[in-house]
Amino acid sequence: MTVYAGRSRNPLPVSLVQTERGGHAGPMSDAVESDILRDLCTGQNLAVLATGTGTHPYASLVAVALTPDLRHLYFATPRATRKCANLAENSQVALLMDNRTNQVSDFSHAAAATFLGTAEEVTGAERDQGLAIYLARHPHLEEFTAAPSCAFFKVRIDRIYLVTRFQNVMEYHFSP
Amino acid sequence: MNKSCDLVVDLSEVTSADLSRVGGKALSLARVAASGARVPPGVCITTAAYTRYLDLTGIRERLPFLLGRKAFSEMRWEELWDLALRVRNLFVRTPLPDALAEELRKALATRFGWIPVTVRSSAPAEDSSTASFAGLHDSFVNVCGPTAILDKMRLVWASLWSDRALLYRQELGLDPSDSSMAVLIQELIIGRCSGVAFSRCPGRPHLAVIEAVWGLNQGLVDGDVEPDRILFDRLDKIIERHAPQREQACRPVVGGVALQSLSADERGTSPLTDADAARVFSLLRQAEAHFGAPQDMEWTERDGDLFILQSRPITAAGTAAEGDERSWYLSLHKSLATLRNLRRTIEDELLPAMEQDAQRLAAVNLTSLEDEALAAEIQRRSGLLDAWEARYREVCIPMAHGIRLFGQLYNDRLRPEDPFAFLDVLTGDEGLLAVQRNQALQALAEQVRRDPVLADQLRDGCAPAPDTPFARSLRQFTIRFGGLSWVMGTAEDEAQALITLVLEMAKSTPPRHSSDRQAREADYLAAFAPEDHSLARDVLDIGRASYRLRDNDNLFIGKLSARLREAYDEAERRLAQREIAVLAELIAPEKMRVARRTTANPLSFQQPAALPGSRQQARQLVGQPAGPGLAQGRAHVIRRPEDLRTLKSGDILVCDAVDPNMTFVVPLAGGIVERRGGMLIHGAIIAREYGIACVTGVPHAIDLIHSGDRVTVDGYLGLVTIEAHAPGERPAG
Fold first, then answer.
1. Cα–Cα–Cα angle for B209, B214, B220, nearest 5°?
2. B11 vs B488: CA distance, rounded Å
3. Contact flag B611-A69 (C-beta cutoff 8 Å)
4. Cα–Cα–Cα angle for A117, A120, A122, nearest 5°?
5. Inter-chain contact B73–A13, Cβ cutoff 8 Å?
């Protein structure tokens, strides 16, 4: 072997230089899942809402806002909509939020969260409280939500399924 | 600018403005040539060709799938190998789009015809004043004809994604997705002698050094040919000469280069006279003056003419201390010749010596030693193990590169859809000690299966009568394989643990071995022309030896560990009876050290309290597909060696890393999930031997999966799905 064979460069990152036998893979470099989830919930304005009655589930895009503890989610909708009619019959909902950019990199970098919960229209003080959170996020929807024909819903979230790295799935179960 | 001009540019026309499309190496050579020095004439295939290839073939979209499975910083070296191999195979299997191929072929045919050329990398980020990519990307020497050139060009492109290059870019904070690659095609100069010249000798920066070998300098840069070394002082005077035992030279052969024996004259003569060395040194000085920085130069000499093959600045990083970890990692890339030597060292020296040491230690009667002597014995055994582990790291790990060398040749020739299909030519090795050990265990299990009375007796906890065939087989097993005490506990309860294991194995028939080794071998050899069969067989032979030794050498280490463990057991036994300071101070830290070798990840993952009031649990985890198959079963998580005892037939074995010394339980497992990643890790090797579904490289596997969980192991896609959590499990959060 010559002095040049394996010409020296910078040392390897610590996590890659562990010895063959034993050792740890090194600290996680990526954000932990719960941080990704929080970023998603605070960064995304829209979610796909799935409601269901009859033979087909029904998907629609809604503007959402979540409470900081991620236990509740709010959305508003005109009363005459199909989703509103569905909710009157079945309050069980699923929502999908994701941060895709319509690029190939989405397959490895995008995260998606599916929320399962129960929706109920809120009124009175509870509505005011929720609306404050909602309008802080979507101030341009003030007129929309103020209309008498607009229903304001709160979803009590039971579970969140977070998908990262294309196939990695983590579940968060909230106690009732 | 017309398209050909966009894709191919003559070296003599390259200017500084072209850096981003011709790369650092091509630009440096063009500048050297412009200064009046001779460089082999040639052209540069620009980065536009690479970009067009990536875009037109869809590779640009496919790469993130390969790269995004795991955080780069979490990958071990085996995983980096795998990643680079997958990427390389993608390039190998994806032909150039017709229009691009035609355009390049035409340009190359016009320029070179059938003249032999070199095909070399020239990445735009390469060889700048702050970063040198020396030795990271591939080069090919003695390539003839446009088709062969274009094939090699794809391999050069792929080397942008080699494990070494990925590592280096990671260090520099460069995103490989943003990197590009130009390819330099130059007429091959068949030099009488060649070498490198370095303005600053590593370790002695006040001196300059020239290294010289007979023939081409490929043998030197690959580390296969020991060069003559000539050191110059600041006054340009030769102050030292070192002559190695000259044996071989790298010379052109059909389709590439090969190491050939030197003539008697060459053996006895330095490739460079003092006068010739002074000419090379003068050339180095010219390059330094031209670039205004110390240089790392490659040169060759033909018919008295000196050619510069490459000249790049010595970067600050290039003077990193000897013995750093990068240097070690890079040194894992071994040539066939080096691997042959390693194999001889391991098979003929290391393993017999380890066996001898283990036997010598086994002969010591520990119970008869005084306390002081026992303490000394523990220290001796510990020191011995440390020394052998150092040798293991130095010699045995690099030997694993033989698997990769074979895999690369296999993939280049057969271009298989599965980049790891080559492993099927390596599996089914009867020389694998782990398999032999498992066969012996199966034979014990078979005795139990055939003898219900014996089975009942053993199940009731009765020891087998000493003179029965079963008892004799049990003793033979312990003698041959050193028992299982290293992972099963103390020698006293090892026998019982072994019987429990055998009883469990007797419940089901053993898994089938993959058996198409011969057919795969025939397919492999059929891909080579008859004149290349010898090389193909040599590489296969090294691949198989490497595969076998990768597992076997650990079992020898295991035997030494067992002897150390035995001494600890004796010390513990005494300490339980009375206080013995000399032993007590040895035990605590050392026990930990031994434990760490066998048990799970010591830095167990603590999932942060994710969301208040929520319970967090994994549903599906992504790893690497390491053993094809789909298995469903109850998870059995190994956190401590003792957990191995309770593995039931069909359980999914979930562990941090399958230690080679615990592979005896693998035939019981329905599937394997491992935190440690890679196709060359022991768990993957043994799973493949038994055709068991296996997913490796699952971060925090033993923390996110719990014993009793119902899981599916998808060894095709590298997924682990937790179908149902064990009752009562309260995952973190």
1. 55
2. 66
3. yes
4. 135
5. yes
Query: Which of B485, B476, B456, B513 shows the shortest CA–CA distance to B644?
Result: B485
Residue B63: band (very low, low, confident or very high) from pLDDT cuts 50, 70, 90: confident
B-contacting residues of A 3-62, CB under 8 Å? 3-13, 15-22, 24-30, 32-34, 37
Report pTM: 0.77
A116 touches chain B (CB under 8 A): no
Give the integer Cα–Cα distance in Å for B448 and B503: 7
Tokens at B634, concatenated: 């109850």
Cα B3 to its chain centre, rounded Å, is 41
Strands (E), chain A: 46-53, 56-66, 72-78, 92-98, 112-121, 150-164, 168-174
Cβ atoms within 10 Å of B192's Cβ, excluding its own: 16
Q: Do A16 and B76 touch (CB under 8 A)?
A: yes
pLDDT in tens, B447-484: 999 999 999 988 888 888 888 888 888 888 877 776 66
Across the range B504-521, mean pLDDT stands at 76
Minimum-distance CB partner of B320 among A2, A9, A26: A9
The strand pair at B630-637 and B652-655 is best described as: parallel
Rg (CA), chain B: 29
Distance (Å, whole) CA B664 – CA B687: 11
What φ, ψ does residue A33 adopt, rounded to 5°? -55, -40
Distance from the B95 Cα atom to the nearest Cα atom in chain A, whole angstroms: 22
Pairs of residues, one from chain A and one from chain B, whose beta carbons lie less than 8 Å apart: 201
* Residue B216 neighbours by CB under 8 Å, 6+ apart: B141, B190, B191, B194, B249, B250, B251, B252, B257, B300
What are the tens digits of pLDDT across the range B404-456? 889 989 998 999 998 888 988 988 788 888 888 888 888 999 999 999 999 99
Crossing angle of helices B517-526/B401-414, nearest 10°? Answer: 60
Residue B232 contacts residue B284 (beta carbons within 8 Å)? no
Residues of A in contact with B229 (CB under 8 A): 2-3
Interface of B with A in 692-711 (CB under 8 A): 699
CB contact under 8 A, A3 and B607: no
CB contact under 8 A, B733 and A172: yes
Q: What Å distances lie between residue B548 and A28, B124, B396, B402, B518, CA to CA?
A: 33, 41, 11, 11, 17
Nearest to B67 among A6, A71, A108 (CB): A108
Mutual angle of helices B163-172 and B77-93, in 10-degree steps: 110
d(CA B159, CA B89): 11
Q: Is the pLDDT of residue B2 over 70?
A: no
